[in-house]
Structures are given as structure tokens and as C-alpha cells.
Design goal:
alpha/beta, 47% helix, globular, 353 residues, disordered N terminus
């Protein structure tokens, strides 16, 4: 009742926004994962969105683990704080690396660094010498950053979302999905292990490389283990490039992009096949799950970044990508929220097949 004696519907009950539960699929891409940070940061602000499962690979696995821990201990605001703390620590840890931008690069906003002498030297060395020679002590600063931000014992015990981290088994060529009590710092390192930079990560007698070779990210855990049929893929690696790569570096970069997208494309083909069977009445709709797929991306921006920028953890660059991620998530929410739970908002055939 208002001051004039009129009955007014309770604002919480009368116009409460519908909550829609989604699963997240987070790609990897080194420092480019800051784009996904921005996307997550914006999604966390929208209380109409709830999260059930997160499948992630490489830098996406780091984002997913920090997000899951933040949600577990502090809800949405806790997740936002944890993600920001993680990326700040990444930037601070990288400040003294010779691969980071010079003062001139920062002044000229040279985020690519593909022509920096330090990167060129590193690129040549990594093609001649293995990480077992260049990094015999197997140092990986990401581990200390993760352990500073995430209490893995608590995450294993109380995780508030279903978390799936993908790695590649070096010896068997099979995909490994870490989940539940398996989630630890080494599992994240396994998912992020680029074989030209780091030694294979050993866990319980098996050895792992970056999960992007087998699932970037893997969608099947979300199909098998989550109730929600909505999967929001946060893309980092461009699927299409209009120009044909001609330099050695451009060719290698495109090979990596194709390799790291190939497993996702195969899963999209399988999902499209099952969806078509359902639509044609050849499979009972109730017997199999009809997946609804969505994509948040910034391919127009990511196509303009060189491969070296995946190693650029300068705070200005990370914030640049974070801002773009927030903007793309905002646009996606405005355009597609009402369609969640009803239909896919990405044309699977046009984008992936």
C-alpha cells in the first residue's frame, strides 16, 4: 500500500525476474583468457543467471577454478573479487619476465609483441630446445598464483558448481576430465601445460599436456552430468580468418587455432546430428537431451592479436581484454536472455559445421 492508500504489488514478488540456469564452457588462450574474465565478471552481476556446471580448458580452467572457488566462499561478489585478484597476481608475477612489454610498448599500446627481440629469441629457442632443457627445474609461476587465490581443500569439499577441467593424456592420447576431489593446483597446471614451454604434468603416474588438444573446451561432461541444457561457450580462439596465413608465424598461429578448435567442432557436429534426429522424430525427445547452445565471442578483436600476445600479461592489456569481454557479455545478455531455456542462440550449422 502506498501513501495514497492504493495497493501496490510487492516489487520482489510481483516483478521478480526469472532465473535461468546455464552451463559455461570456457576456452583457453593464455593471457587472452582475460577476455573470458570480463565475460564472467558481467554475467556474475546479472542475478537472473545461475550457474550449474563449468567445463574449461587451459586458461579457461584457471578462470573456472577461481570462479568456482569465489562462488563457493563468497557468492557472486566473492567470485568477482577472486577473479580480479587472480589476474592481478598474474600481471604482478609477469612484471619481471623479459617477454613482457617494454615501456615503449606500453606507451604505444603495442599489445602484440610479435616483433619484440625477447619474444623472437624465445620463439626460436622453444623450437630447438625442449622445456626439459630450458626449464630443468620445471618452474611454473602459475602454481603459486593459484595456491594464493584458491583453497583447493575447501574447493574439493564444498564446491558450489560442477567443475570439469580438461587435459590431454600424453601417453594414451585420451582426454582426461578432472572433477570433484581431483581438482587441485596440478590439475589446473595439467590443463594449461603447453608442451613447448612446460614439462608434462605428472598426476598419479600419468602425464598431461594442455587440454586444448582434446577438448577446448569439452562439452560432453555438461551433457552427461548437468541438468541444464543451456551451454554458453566463451570463445577465445577465432574460428574463421578471412585471410590466408603466409608468414611462418602466421601459419603456426593458424595451425594452433585450428588444432585447438578441432575438438569443439567435432562435438558440435555430434550435437547437431542428435538434434536433427530429435527434430525429425527419429529419437524420442524425452529419451535424449536436446542441447541449447550459445556463444559469447569477440573474434573481430582476437583476429587482430598476434600469437605473442597470449604471453602478454601486462595489466593494461589484461584490462583491455576484460573491458571487451564485459561489453560482449552485456550485448549477448540484452539480445538473448529471453531465449535461454527455449532455443539455441547460435546457428550450429553456420558457425561450426
Amino acid at each position: 500500500m502506498n501513501l495514497h492508500g492504493e495497493v501496490v504489488p510487492d516489487p520482489v514478488v510481483g516483478v521478480a525476474a526469472e532465473t535461468k540456469t546455464i552451463n559455461l564452457a570456457l576456452q583457453g588462450g593464455g593471457a587472452h583468457g582475460a577476455l573470458a574474465w570480463g565475460v564472467l565478471d558481467r554475467l556474475l552481476e546479472d542475478e537472473r543467471i545461475a550457474f550449474e556446471g563449468i567445463s574449461a580448458t587451459s586458461a579457461g580452467a584457471a578462470n573456472a577454478t577461481v570462479l568456482a572457488f569465489g562462488l563457493t566462499v563468497g557468492g557472486r561478489e566473492g567470485a568477482k573479487r577472486a577473479l580480479k585478484a587472480f589476474w592481478r597476481r598474474i600481471a604482478r608475477t609477469a612484471m619481471f619476465s623479459p617477454l613482457q612489454p617494454s615501456l615503449w610498448d606500453r606507451m604505444t599500446h603495442n599489445h602484440g609483441l610479435d616483433n619484440s627481440p625477447a619474444y623472437l629469441a624465445f620463439d626460436i629457442l622453444s623450437r630447438v630446445f625442449s622445456p626439459y632443457q630450458l626449464n630443468p627445474l620445471n618452474l611454473n609461476p602459475l602454481k603459486s598464483v593459484l595456491e594464493d587465490v584458491v583453497d583447493f581443500a575447501k574447493l574439493q569439499r564444498d564446491c558450489s558448481v560442477k567443475l570439469f577441467l580438461t587435459a590431454t593424456n600424453v601417453r594414451t592420447c585420451k582426454v582426461k576430465v578432472f572433477t570433484g576431489a581431483e581438482i587441485c593446483a596440478d590439475a589446473v597446471l595439467a590443463s594449461t601445460c603447453l608442451p613447448f614451454i612446460y614439462q608434462a604434468v605428472e598426476i598419479d603416474g600419468d602425464y598431461y599436456w594442455d587440454g586444448g588438444y582434446m577438448g577446448n573446451p569439452a562439452i560432453f561432461p555438461l551433457i552427461y552430468h548437468c541438468d541444464s541444457a543451456d551451454v554458453v561457450i566463451v570463445h577465445i580462439n577465432p574460428i574463421e580468418r578471412p585471410e590466408v596465413p603466409k608468414t611462418a608465424r602466421e601459419i603456426m598461429n593458424r595451425i594452433n587455432e585450428i588444432s585447438f578448435n578441432s575438438s569443439l567442432m567435432r562435438e558440435m557436429r555430434a550435437i547437431s546430428f542428435v538434434t536433427k534426429l530429435i527434430e525429425d522424430g527419429k529419437l524420442p525427445d524425452g529419451d535424449v537431451k536436446r542441447m541449447m547452445l550459445h556463444a559469447v565471442e569477440a573474434d573481430d578483436v582476437m583476429r587482430g592479436l598476434g600469437v605473442a600476445s597470449k604471453l602478454n600479461a601486462d595489466w593494461e592489456f589484461l584490462m583491455h581484454l576484460h573491458t571487451i569481454g564485459r561489453e560482449r557479455a552485456e550485448a549477448w545478455l540484452n539480445a538473448n536472455f529471453e531465449r535461454l531455456g527455449k532455443e539455441s542462440t547460435v546457428d550450429i550449422g553456420d558457425k561450426y559445421l
